[in-house]
Structures are given as C-alpha cells and as structure tokens.
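[job 4471] stage=fold_predict status=RUNNING
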Amino acid sequence: MIVTISGRHMDVTEALKNYAESKVGKLSKYYDRIQEIEVIMDASKDGTRVEVIVNAEHNALFVAHHDSGDAYACIDGCVDKLERQLTDHKEKHRNRKHPSPQPGGPGHTATPRQRTSQ
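[job 4471] inference complete, writing structure tokens
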C-alpha cells in the first residue's frame, strides 16, 4: 500500500506526516484491497482542509474531505468517513452473491396451509 502525503499552501511537518500515516494505515483492516492512499492538506485563511483519496482494486475510489481549524481533527474526520465508506463497500461486495431471503422468494419458508374438509 502506497501512502502519499502532500500539502498545498503549507509545509507538512514531520509530526503531522507521521500522524497521518499512522491513521490512514489503519484503513486496511476495514478493506484489504487498498492499493494507494493520498492525503492532501490545504491551508487557507478560513482554516485547514484535508482530503483523503483511497484507490482500491477494481477501479474503486473512495474520497473524504473535512474542513476544520485543526489539521489533526481534519485527519480524524476523514478517517471516520472512510471507515464507514469502506465497511459499507465491503458488506455490499460480500453479500452480492447471497442476498437475504425475500418473502415469497426461494429460501423463504411459508407457513403450511390448513386443510379444510368438505
């Protein structure tokens, strides 16, 4: 897994870079087919904006961005959003071949009908 960290209009300190790498490195436990993660930090007069782009196998792309005054809080917010996205994608991909039984469909057990005597 390749992790790229870059900054726009700001210098990314070594502590911030290590924090971002440790946080986004934990995303692989939610979806193991991640190939590349890109973290972009942008400083403006309004505050800091962090955008995290996760590239996974089969052309799957996950993007999260967070605006806040603190870069560390932005990284945490992006990681939380990506955890949800990756978990939902994994559940969808895992359950695609075996959908849950629907009423009236195969796999649904109907109650037996009562016989009426005539």
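[job 4471] summary: The longest strand covers residues 34-43.
[job 4471] exit 0
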